[in-house]
Amino acid sequence: MDNGTLFYITGGVLAASAVIVSLLGLRLEKLPGRAAPLVALWFVVLIGSATTFAVLHSQDEEVPHEEAVGLPQATEEAEEEEAE
Predict the structure, then answer these.
(1) Is the peptide bond before 32 cis (omega within 30 degrees of 0)?
(2) What is the pLDDT of residue 65?
(3) Judging by beta carbons within 10 Å of its beta carbon (0-12, 13-18, 19+), is residue 61 exposed, middle or buried?
(4) What is the pLDDT of residues 58-74, one digit of tens each?
(5) How many domains does the chain have?
(6) Which pLDDT belongs to residue 83?
(7) Predicted model pTM
(8) What letter would DSSP give residue 71?
């Protein structure tokens, strides 16, 4: 799997977990209670993995600025025009 897919999976699981925990928290008085360390660890792991895969995915998608703007092609065209 590539980094982009892993980012979207971990981000989706993180969002779903946040919604589920918040809905359970509204319904149950004693949530998280004794499970607080486990819930906190779950979110720390998901946030860390989503952040890691986001950074790795952004590095995969990075294009040098000159290529993105088209400067090498424009430079070559300008040099050809000057030579004529």
Answers:
(1) yes
(2) 55
(3) exposed
(4) 887 666 555 556 666 66
(5) 1
(6) 79
(7) 0.69
(8) H
